[in-house]
Amino acid sequence: MATESATMHRDWWWRKANEVRLRVNAAWWLETMSMPLVVLALAGAAGLLWVRREMPLTAPWMLHVSVAVVIVLMALVCLAVAARRFEKPEQSLVRIEAAMCLRNALTAAKAGVAPWPAPVLKIDAGLQWHWSRLLVPLLGALVLLGAGLWLPISARQTKAANSPEQPQAWKQLATELDMLTKEDVVDEKYLEETRRKLDEMRSQKEEQWFSHSSLEATDHLKKNHRTEAERVERELGRADKALGNLEKNAGASNEAAKQRMMEEFDQALEGLQNGSMKPNPQLLEQMKNLDLKNLSELPPEQLQQLREQMEKNAGKLGECNGKGEGENWDDELLGDGEGEGEGDKEGNGKGGVNRGPGHAPGVLGKENDGVETGKMEGLAATDLSHAAPGDLLELQDGEHEVDKAPSQLKAGGNTDATGKGGDRVWRDSLDPDEQRVLKRFFE
After folding, report:
1. For residue range 60-87, what is the model confidence (pLDDT) as tens digits?
2. What is the pTM of this model?
3. How many whole angstroms separate alpha carbon 241 and alpha carbon 264?
4. Beta-bridge partner residues of 273
5. Per the count of CB atoms within 10 A, which of 52, 100, 122, 362 is most buried?
6. Alpha carbon distance 247, 265 (integer Å)
7. What is the 3 state secondary structure string of the chain?
């Protein structure tokens, strides 16, 4: 019984010594980790802000996991460094008997020269936590890391890469394919095949995008696409027209005309089934199942719906086919409208590789509207208080007043004579010799 009691006392004291050992070793570990944690948190906050600014597409969970991994690695390193100062249970036992003034009772019991003391209510190892030294670095690190993770920051507006912009023809073709897909106008197999060819050209090296072979392949692909779109649009129009004529002349007795219209519809249907681009499969199936001979038995609503669908698809293909746009695609291959020669609304040409710089007509630019120089216009002067001498106040149209009375010469103020013949010449202004010559000439 005494032996069992001694064993219980011994186990109790060793258990308390291990608890003290863990407290001391944890304190050494936290002490070792406090300063590196603050430094790491400061550097980590700066790094997190940089990543969020320079790489805004980075997922938040990746940042959180990265921070946790770095903290764990740092904690393990600090644990390895602090392990050199860790206590063993024997040292903790000595610390307890020294703090509790047991006079080497525990050391003697461990050596087997004295019995183990009975358990006590409270163990005093002489240790006390300094929470300020522990919590301040920890809270500071948490604040810094939180700022790096959640502080609002705007993503950096990076300049566009130096890589060249894709040819405008690729963008136009991709837009047309997307529109055809959205409107469900043509067969999806054709759209997938065209997209595959377009992706092959995009996969080239950037310096090959505007090479002669690439531009030629792009032009060939777009021309084939538009040719197919024109063909399907044309055949849909032919079929719609033939169907409309058949519906209009359903009760007519001219079988030859009906047969010609049915052949026209069948030719259009055959054209729609040929080629790489085919119309919507549902629409094509409805057209194939249409019984032209018994067209009058078909409900008018169903026939009208079919014609509207054909007209709608033809219209969408017309939009996709670039109606209303320029037909010269070679200029569109190099960029957004660069090289176009039509000019803008002000009359300024846009220039191009084959058209010169695109200056406006005239060396000094576009001329203003012509001014009618030399034409004088009168201004109505309603306020003459500020008029100055010499100002033109009014212009009037009129005729000269001509004195039609015979001219008369007066000599000395007493003789009135009407000139006749040569006398009308002012002889008074001639010298005598000239008067004689003039007199002989008129005699």
Report:
1. 999 999 999 999 999 999 999 999 999 9
2. 0.40
3. 9
4. none
5. 52
6. 12
7. CHHHHHHHHHHHHHHHHHHHHHHHHHHHHHHHHHHHHHHHHHHHHHHHHHHHHHCCCCCHHHHHHHHHHHHHHHHHHHHHHHHHHCCCHHHHHHHHHHHCCCCCHHHHHHHCCCCCCCCCCCCCCCCCCCHHHHHHHHHHHHHHHHHHHHCCCCCCCCCCCCCCCCCHHHHHHHHHHHHHHHHCCECHHHHHHHHHHHHHHHCCCHHHCCCHHHHHHHHHHHHHHHHHHHHHHHHHHHHHHHHHHHHHCCCCCCHHHHHHHHHHHHHHHHHHHCCCCCECHHHHHHHHCCCCCCHHHCCHHHHHHHHHHHHHHHHHHHHHCCCCCCCCCCCHHHCCCCCCCCCCCCCCCCCECCCECCCCCCCCCCCCCCCCCCCCCCCCCCCCCCCCCCCCCCCCCCCCCCCCCCCEEEECCCEEEECCHHHHCCHHHCCHHHHHHHHHHHC
Rg (CA), the chain: 54
Is 106:89 a contact under the CB 8 Å cutoff?
no
Q: What Cα–Cα distance (Å) separates residue 369 from each residue in 366, 372, 379, 419?
A: 9, 10, 22, 58
Structure tokens belonging to residue 252: 């007519």
Give the pLDDT confidence score for residue 431 in this predicted structure: 75
